[in-house]
Each structure stands twice: as C-alpha cells, then as structure tokens.
Amino acid sequence: xxxxxxxxxxxxxxxxxxxxxxxxxxxxxxxxxxxxxxxxxxxxxxxxxxxxxxxxxxxxxxxxxxxxxxxxxxxxxxxxxxxxxxxxxxxxxxxxxxxxxxxxxxxxxxxxxxxxxxxxxxxxxxxxxxxxxxxxxxxxxxxxxxxxxxxxxxxxxxxxxxxxxxxxxxxxxxxxxxxxxxxxxxxxxxx
Length: 191
Prior knowledge:
The chain is an alpha/beta fold. The protein is built from one helix and 20 strands. It has one domain: 3 Solenoid (UDP N-Acetylglucosamine Acyltransferase, domain 1), CATH 2.160.10.10.
C-alpha cells in the first residue's frame, strides 16, 4: 500500500512539475511539438525571436543549468527526440537548426555569432548553424558560426568546429578535423 501511495504522489508531482515548466516555456514564447522532459534544473531561457522544440526532447541538468538564448530576429529550431546534457549553452542571433535524435553533451556550446569584432576592420560574424539528424556533440565541444554538420556525425569531446563536417564523420581537435568516417544506413539511430 505504501509503495502504491508513493507511486501515485510521485506521478502527480512529476506531472504538475511538467505542466509548470510547459507554462513557463509558453510564457517565454517557446513552442514544443510535444512533451519536453526536464530532469534536474530547468534551462535558463531568453527568447526574443523564434524558438521551437520537437516532441520528446529531454534536458538533463542536475549540476549546471542550460542557457538558451535567442536574440531579436534569431531562430532556434530543434527536432524531435533530442537530448541535452548538463550546462549546454546555445545562442542564436541568426539561425540554429538541430535535427532529430541529436545528443548534445555536457557543457557543449553552439553559437551562430562571434558576439563582437575580432579585428577593427571586420564586423562581428553571424552565419547560420545546421546540425543534421542523429548527430552526437560530445562534452565541452564548441560549434561556431557558419558550420553545417552532416547526418550521423560525431563531434569529439573538446573539439572546436570552425568548418563544415561531412555526414558519417568523426571530428576531433582544435580546430576540429576529420579523424575517421563510418558507414551507417539512413534509418540508424544512435542509442
């Protein structure tokens, strides 16, 4: 009896928490195609543009909260069943698109802008970022403005991606370079 009472109260608490976070996201103007799961701390969201998440996305954040920022005129579009681990930092000033079934590791950063000038004679760079389906971005990786990552690719831990990554490639290093390629049929989903 105690076990069933625990299950009932825990289930009600979890559903209430999910409803509160859905309302919070709606107030921020963040749209979702279905249930979004939050384990631990919710993401810190600043949305002044367009922000959409697909169905069954999951945020895991027990140690470090996520930071999601969409600046005025920017867009962040995330596909279905994407997973975001602790401390992911995403800033969209122009456009960031993340495909279905992607896994983004601890402390990974995805930026479509340099935020400020690098040299006095060049404006801050802004360019769209595209991440294909079933991509794994490992812990502490950084994806910078103008990068396109192909389907099924893997970005190694700590890599800084400054150029496009082909589909079914593994990249690592600073700056990231292709270290191997692999075969995977189009319907394969990473577990």
